[in-house]
Amino acid sequence: MSGGAVTFGRFTIERRLAAPPARVFAAFADPAVKARWFAGPAGEWRQRERSCDFREGGRERLVGDWNSGLVTEFDAVYLDIVPDIRIVYGYGMRLDGRRISMSLATLEFRAESGGTRFVLTEQGAFLDGYEDGGRREHGTQALIAAMAGVVEER
Q1: For the residues of 78-124, what is the DSSP string, one character each?
Q2: Distance in angstroms (rounded) separating the CA atoms of residues 45 and 72
Q3: Looking at residue 107, what is its pLDDT?
C-alpha cells in the first residue's frame, strides 16, 4: 500500500471491423459469444468463475488463475446500454484479492461503409501504488484483436 495514492490513465482504441454494428455489439452483449474471446491467453490462464447479466444495472464477473499462480478478478456493472450504438460500464480489477484499479469504459459502434468503426475509451484510477506500466492498454488491445477474430469470421 502507498498511503491511498491514486494515479490516472486514459486510452482510446479505434478499429474498423468487417462486420455490421449489430454483430460487433453482440460480441459484448451475448454472454456465449463474449466467452469465446473475453478471457486470458490459452495455455497461460484458466477460468475459475464467469457470470454476465447484460442489462443496465446488470453485473459481470470473470475470475481466472494464471500459470504463475496469480489470480485476477474483473467485476463490472453496466451503466448505459444503447443497442448497436453504445455500452458504458464501470469495473474494478483485483490481483490476488488486492484491488488495483477502478475504470470507466465506453464502447461505441458506428456504421461505416459496410462495417463498423469500433471505439473503446477507458479512463482508469490505479490504486495504492499499483504501477500499470501500459499493461491495461496492451491487454485490452489483445482482447479487442480476439473479439475482431470472432466477429469477422465468415
Answers
A1: EEEEETTTEEEEEEEEEETTEEEEEEEEEEEEEEETTEEEEEEEEEE
A2: 10
A3: 98
CATH number of 6-151: 3.30.530.20
What is the predicted pLDDT for the residue at 154? 67
Provide the percentage of residues in the chain whose pLDDT is more than 90: 90
**SS3 category, 126:** strand
Q: What stretch of H or E contains 35? A: none
pLDDT for residue 1 is more than 70: no
Q: Identify the CA nearest to 22 among candidates 124, 111, 128.
A: 111
How much is the pTM?
0.94
Distance, in Å, from the CA atom of 84 to the CA atom of 23, rounded to the nearest integer, reads: 8
What residue spans define the domains of the chain?
6-151
Long-range contacts at 50-55 (CB < 8 A, ≥ 24 apart): 54/28, 54/29, 54/30, 54/78, 54/81, 55/81
